[in-house]
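User: Could you check the structure of this?
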Amino acid sequence: MGIAASMVTIGKPAVPKALVGATALWRGENETDNVQWRVAHALRSDFGIQAGDSIAHIGNGFEVYWARLARVRIVAEIPQATVLNVWTNDPDAPEKAVRIFREAGARCIVRIGITRADAERLGWKRIDDADDYFYPLTI
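Assistant: Sure, the predicted structure tokens are below.
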């Protein structure tokens, strides 16, 4: 009983966000109003990512329902807290992360919540009109 309660507590914040896209589609609502759906759609239609592709993610791991909708696999991730602590203090961190993501077999990196100025400076491509960005990796 204690384990189940712990799992519910841990998963509780992610459940509403994970169900938003599917619930909206089931209700017949306009899927383009949902950020998770828009990110998934842009990955597939604008950036050529296919179902089953391996990708890397930088950001909050509880907000990646777009990956399920796009049917991609997240093979490497840097949590947002690590980015804030390490990324800003180590000028070589972005290049190290790209190397590690490539070694993990990722075709691209999706980063949630990067500023537009940083994204443009680093060559990231904006996904739709959200603060979500795409960075292609050549393997």
